[in-house]
Amino acid sequence: MSEASSGAPERDAASSFLRQFARRRTSSEPEERCELCSVPLNPLHQHLLSVKKRQILCACDGCAILFCGQAGAHYLRVPRRLRYLIDFQMSDSQWEALMVPINLVFFYRDTAADKALAMYPSPAGATESLLSLESWQEIVAQNPDLQTMESDVEALLVNRIDDCAEYFLVPIDECYRLVGIIRMHWHGLSGGNEVWKEIHQFFADLRTRSTESRRPAHA
What pTM did the predictor assign? Predict the structure, then answer.
């Protein structure tokens, strides 16, 4: 099996979430602030993606409108929709053809690289799989939900760490939140009981917040 390498931009995105978790636990200041204009933020606020740096910023509604939606904008607004893909189609042979080294991974379309990328969480951050994604287009063709996935800011999150496989279409910040959780709670070689408890809690929460998406029934 080929080796995979960790990308610095993806580590930065995960690290930004890790810093947010640390602030919430240690800071006496109860509020987060917009990282562009410093106004206080509500707990449910906008996230922006710096496309060049692959860095996620917390933003107020005003900055999200001001800095996005224009030609050549430096930021993309991260959507909020969460979909649990109940009838997702991926055979075991298709999964094996992707040759992702672990059973927890997210896929997104990177416009700068002009291709789909596979990233998996690790104690070091988000790690890019350098293996073949030749079957990706076949999987996209079988699953209409993937054809609506927004480049750079939405991802297919795959959880195959237990006996059953789960598939979610999520904002990219959810993927980096998972990476941050793993970096924060991983101990030793196997991670320890705490990190696996946190991973299962992450997906339990994701299922609760997601809208179920089913394939339309054939006539």
Answer: 0.83
Within 10 Å of residue 190's Cβ, how many Cβ atoms? 9
Return the amino acid letter for 191.
G
Cα dihedral 136, 13, 54, 120, rounded to 10, equals -20
Locate the domains of the chain by residue range. 5-77, 83-213
- 167 secondary structure, DSSP code: E
**DSSP assigned state of 146:** H
**DSSP letter (8 states) at residue 15:** H
7: confidence class by pLDDT, cuts 50, 70, 90: low
What per-residue confidence (pLDDT) applies to 178?
95
Picking from 128, 182, 158, the residue whose alpha carbon sits closest to that of residue 2 is 128
- pLDDT of residue 27 exceeding 50: no
Q: Is residue 105 within 8 Å of 158, Cβ to Cβ?
A: yes
Amino acid identity, residue 44?
L
How far is 48 from 42, CA to CA, in rounded Å? 15
DSSP state for residue 67 in the 8-state scheme: H
